[in-house]
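ok so for the tutorial part 2 we go from a plain amino acid sequence to predicted structure tokens. step 1 is just haveing the sequence, like this:
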Amino acid sequence: MGFTTFATAAAVALPKVLEYASLRRQGKELSQAAAVQQRLADRQADALTDTAVSNQQRAARNANAQLNSAHVVAATSHLMDDGSARLRERDLATRLQDEITNNANASLQQAQSIREQGAYTAWNTRNTAARTKNQARGTLLSGAGSLFGSLASSLSQSSEN
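step 2 — the prediction. this is what the tokens look like for a chain of 161 residues:
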């Protein structure tokens, strides 16, 4: 069993080893991409949540201004005495609060949807990375099998001679 035997065996196994290294690197890159995808989705959702909170605070300030304005109008028109102004103010307050709540809920649901989509995408990418790493292990084992098979074949041929 000479140099030719080992060279032949190495030539058979080398492509599998290179494929293993490539798949292993691809798996690591996919794992890193999954982490980046998750962070980006979380940042986007956090930004949307912050915007929703700011919008809700601004809308509450605007609602208070509208209520104060309605109260002033009612007071100057002497509607306060008959009670209808209080009903209008209550209706206005309810309507404004419903708008604020609905807008905030829509934004928060959108943020949650972004988080869930980001988590799913990251999970899917991590799953692909795991499959790639398993494929890399299989390739390495296949390469080792090819190497040992080639060596065994060479040994059997040299023992027959």
